[in-house]
């Protein structure tokens, strides 16, 4: 009896093995594993990577209002009601946003006003070469998928029966990720996701999220919003909230995005990614006080969050609290962050906190860790500020010259060199430097104001008035610019 029972159990096991093999045969399992491995090689997190190309910025057809109410738009500078810092306190990008403490997509320059500015402005932290469209950006990120294979491509999408594979739940999701991320074929990915959603009877939230990602990549933001909303109705997920908030930010609806994040926090209390999203929006809207409060909430949930620590430290530095900023940057150093930017910030904080023994050693370490000419130019520019602070104008002149040697488009270095040249009595050289700085960075008020002052001193009142008007456009609350304009208008009225 025991032998017959044993035979029965073995038959049952073999039958179960056959059933499992029929669900996903060995060949399909290996195929699925290789597909997943190839996808992981070039995987891009759609939540963090969000890059608007020049085409999306200048040819945007989804604008809601040309004249937005204050505090309701990310695209118009100076619309904040939160008492944000002025350009005299904290440097601004050309879109009117304060420079953030952590480099993220779209924080380098903001939204340019003209096509000429869009072409001139660096699109990322490491290159000045503009990206013509967001699709080009994703192709560049996924360059591993374009490597030639001796045996041809692993999957020939043109010969693939999408309808057949969409009906296999064990393989369809892996295949979709391969098509979307490895091949960057959004059209086929969209068709495949639509077939799989239909096969799932429109009840699978995961496929609706993938449909939304495809629509978003294609620039169809309203269709993406519908899919993400429908996915949230089926299943509350943090990623879905993040994707939907990206849609609203691209549609220039920051208030709706904030409400969505807060709705997500009701379902996922204390979720660090949702709190970070709220803080980023407040920061982009120039509401630094609220942004700092939310970054502090992020640190209560995750005390190793690098972005929150860096942004809080940057805010303390620009509000003349260098000692407190130094503590935050030292915390990053303790966490293992070891790069040029951190040591540059440590050097500045030590200098303004009057810890001079650590200043030069921090800058030396920063110079040893530079990875690009732009970083080296910024470090030498900051060393020039340190030299001005200690009164060594010769060293400052050399530092600013070195900054221009590594980055010939460094507008701030041109401006400061112009001031030093003027102290030496070289008026024509100073004027040339100021004009160069004003043309390279029209959103900075200092070159325009300095040019207006210089032109007034040498008697060129018309040029002084034009430069003062540009300075007023860049920084309307600047008192010295207002005084120059007032005196010039009185003088013109007397003529």
Automatic annotation (TrEMBL):
GO terms for biological process: non-motile cilium assembly. Residues 1-23, 75-133 are annotated as: Disordered. GO terms for cellular component: BBSome; ciliary basal body; non-motile cilium. Residues 1-12 have a biased composition (Polar residues). The keyword Cytoplasm does not apply. SMART domains: TPR. It comes from Alosa alosa. This is Tetratricopeptide repeat protein 8. Keywords: TPR repeat. InterPro entries: BBS8, TPR-like_helical_dom_sf, TPR_rpt.
């Amino acid at each position: 009896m025991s032998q017959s029972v044993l035979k029965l159990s073995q038959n049952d096991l073999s039958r179960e093995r056959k059933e499992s093999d029929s669900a996903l045969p060995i060949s399909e399992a290996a195929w699925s594993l290789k597909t997943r491995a190839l996808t992981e090689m070039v995987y891009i997190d759609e939540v963090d990577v969000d890059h608007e190309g020049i085409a999306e910025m200048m040819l945007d057809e989804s604008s809601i209002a040309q004249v937005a109410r204050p505090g309701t738009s990310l695209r118009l500078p100076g619309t904040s009601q939160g008492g944000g810092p002025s350009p005299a306190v904290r440097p601004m990008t050309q879109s009117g946003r304060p420079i953030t403490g952590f480099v993220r997509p779209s924080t380098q320059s903001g939204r340019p006003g003209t096509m000429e500015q869009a072409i001139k402005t660096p699109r990322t932290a490491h290159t000045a070469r503009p990206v013509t469209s967001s699709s080009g950006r994703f192709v560049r990120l996924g360059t591993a998928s374009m490597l030639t294979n001796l045996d041809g491509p692993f999957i020939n999408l043109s010969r693939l029966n999408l309808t057949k594979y969409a009906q296999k739940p064990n393989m369809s999701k892996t295949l979709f990720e391969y098509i979307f991320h490895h091949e960057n074929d959004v059209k086929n990915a969209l068709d495949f996701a639509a077939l799989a959603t239909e096969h799932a009877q429109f009840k699978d939230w995961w496929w609706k999220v993938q449909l939304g990602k495809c629509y978003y990549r294609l620039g169809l933001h309203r269709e993406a919003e519908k899919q993400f909303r429908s996915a949230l109705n089926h299943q509350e997920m943090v990623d879905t909230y993040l994707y939907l908030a990206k849609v609203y930010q691209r549609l220039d609806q920051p208030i709706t995005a904030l409400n969505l994040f807060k709705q997500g926090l009701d379902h996922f209390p204390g979720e660090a990614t949702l709190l970070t999203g709220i803080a980023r929006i407040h920061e982009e809207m120039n509401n630094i006080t609220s942004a700092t409060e939310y970054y502090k909430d992020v640190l209560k949930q995750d005390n190793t969050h690098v972005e929150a620590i860096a942004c809080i430290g940057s805010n303390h530095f620009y509000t003349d609290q260098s000692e407190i900023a130094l503590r935050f940057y030292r915390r990053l150093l303790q966490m293992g962050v070891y790069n040029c930017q951190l040591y540059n910030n440590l050097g500045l904080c030590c200098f303004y906190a009057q810890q001079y023994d650590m200043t030069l050693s921090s800058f030396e370490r920063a110079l040893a860790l530079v990875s690009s000419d732009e970083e080296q130019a910024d470090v030498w520019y900051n060393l020039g500020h340190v030299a001005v602070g200690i009164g060594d104008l010769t060293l400052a002149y050399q530092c600013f010259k070195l900054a221009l040697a590594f980055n010939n488009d460094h507008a701030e270095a041109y401006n400061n060199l112009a001031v030093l040249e003027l102290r030496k009595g070289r008026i024509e050289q100073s004027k040339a430097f100021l004009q160069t700085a004003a043309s390279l960075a029209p959103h900075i008020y200092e070159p325009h104001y300095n040019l207006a002052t210089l032109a007034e001193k040498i008697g060129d009142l018309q040029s002084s008035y034009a430069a003062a008007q540009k300075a007023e456009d860049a920084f309307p609350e600047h008192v010295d610019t207002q005084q120059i304009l007032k005196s010039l208008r009185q003088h013109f009225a007397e003529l």
